[in-house]
Amino acid sequence: MDEQTADAASRHVPVLLERCVELLAPALAAPGAVLVDCTLGMGGHTEGVLRAIEHVRVVGIDRDPQALALASERLAPFGERFTGVHAVYDEIGDVVERLGLPGVQGVLMDLGVSSLQLDEAERGFAYAHDAPLDMRMDPTTGPTAADVLNTYDERDIARVLRVYGEERFAARIARGVVRFRERTPLTRTSELVDIVRAGVPAATRRTGGHPAKRTFQALRIEVNGELAALERALPAAIDVLAVGGRIVVESYQSLEDRLVKRALAAGATSSAPPDLPVEPVTHAPYLRLLTRGAEEADEAELARNPRAQSVRLRAAERLRPTPDHLRTPRRAA
């Protein structure tokens, strides 16, 4: 293992790895089983699965070319058991189809920003370091955080911060952004942090962690279209699961977890009208929930990995194909 690959392994402690493997293992027990790791990152979860289940094949998807390269080098010892794909995870259906797979036995999603993106200061994800206002998970395409802040009108900036960051002082921060850019465009994370500090009352700044946390989260979600992609990815991921296959999703903030909860609960609930005397087979649940609510990290996990602080894990098993009347149309290429 060279220095760069070793660095990737040391920098990324996968959240709830043992629990993820435990939940996925029954579906991956048969020879030829395939897992799609929709959020490959630096490959920690995938490596854990490949080591724990010796015959399984993993397809790793990531939109970040740097993460994909690091993970692919780290996982090279597993040979053909690992396939890396540069894509956004809402393209999972197309990825599986291109690889000629009739279905997969497992899907794993570890949502949010990766360790690599947080630790690489120049990517602009971290409010603790001065860096360009970028925040793109795929730095080769799309608008940056600076583009959002310098081109959106005040009302839209406030909407992004309020909806995606659940920021109480969104209007004040948006007003500060517009005043700043009237003099000069925003280009640095430190400029945004100063604007947030000025917009959040002093009493509030003393509690609840860094005052810019919610603003940075909101901009990251907007820049990368994260919630829209997740809303498309969840039904697409369920669609590619073979009967008996399992999906495990780790989310880190309430907006993500709400979408995951809704998608899994919909599959685990009868779609028949409540007043029907007999439930038609076509309306019976097609998922079985494997977790009671959302599981959180215990004290031992938090001691190993502080980034597990806000994790919420949900999982489900496919019981039967999704009924035609509940299928989500495939996204146009």
UniProtKB/TrEMBL annotation:
<keyword id="KW-0808">Transferase</keyword>
<keyword id="KW-0949">S-adenosyl-L-methionine</keyword>
<feature type="binding site">
    <location>
        <begin position="43"/>
        <end position="45"/>
    </location>
    <ligand>
        <name>S-adenosyl-L-methionine</name>
    </ligand>
</feature>
<feature type="binding site">
    <location>
        <position position="62"/>
    </location>
    <ligand>
        <name>S-adenosyl-L-methionine</name>
    </ligand>
</feature>
<dbReference type="GO" id="GO:0070475">
    <property type="term" value="P:rRNA base methylation"/>
</dbReference>
<feature type="binding site">
    <location>
        <position position="89"/>
    </location>
    <ligand>
        <name>S-adenosyl-L-methionine</name>
    </ligand>
</feature>
<keyword id="KW-0963">Cytoplasm</keyword>
<keyword id="KW-0698">rRNA processing</keyword>
<comment type="function">
    <text>Specifically methylates the N4 position of cytidine in position 1402 (C1402) of 16S rRNA.</text>
</comment>
<dbReference type="Pfam" id="PF01795">
    <property type="entry name" value="Methyltransf_5"/>
</dbReference>
<feature type="compositionally biased region" description="Basic and acidic residues">
    <location>
        <begin position="314"/>
        <end position="327"/>
    </location>
</feature>
<feature type="binding site">
    <location>
        <position position="110"/>
    </location>
    <ligand>
        <name>S-adenosyl-L-methionine</name>
    </ligand>
</feature>
<keyword id="KW-0489">Methyltransferase</keyword>
<protein>
    <recommendedName>
        <fullName>Ribosomal RNA small subunit methyltransferase H</fullName>
        <ecNumber>2.1.1.199</ecNumber>
    </recommendedName>
</protein>
<dbReference type="GO" id="GO:0071424">
    <property type="term" value="F:rRNA (cytosine-N4-)-methyltransferase activity"/>
</dbReference>
<feature type="binding site">
    <location>
        <position position="117"/>
    </location>
    <ligand>
        <name>S-adenosyl-L-methionine</name>
    </ligand>
</feature>
<dbReference type="InterPro" id="IPR029063">
    <property type="entry name" value="SAM-dependent_MTases_sf"/>
</dbReference>
<dbReference type="GO" id="GO:0005737">
    <property type="term" value="C:cytoplasm"/>
</dbReference>
<dbReference type="InterPro" id="IPR023397">
    <property type="entry name" value="SAM-dep_MeTrfase_MraW_recog"/>
</dbReference>
<feature type="region of interest" description="Disordered">
    <location>
        <begin position="297"/>
        <end position="333"/>
    </location>
</feature>
<dbReference type="InterPro" id="IPR002903">
    <property type="entry name" value="RsmH"/>
</dbReference>
<comment type="similarity">
    <text>Belongs to the methyltransferase superfamily. RsmH family.</text>
</comment>
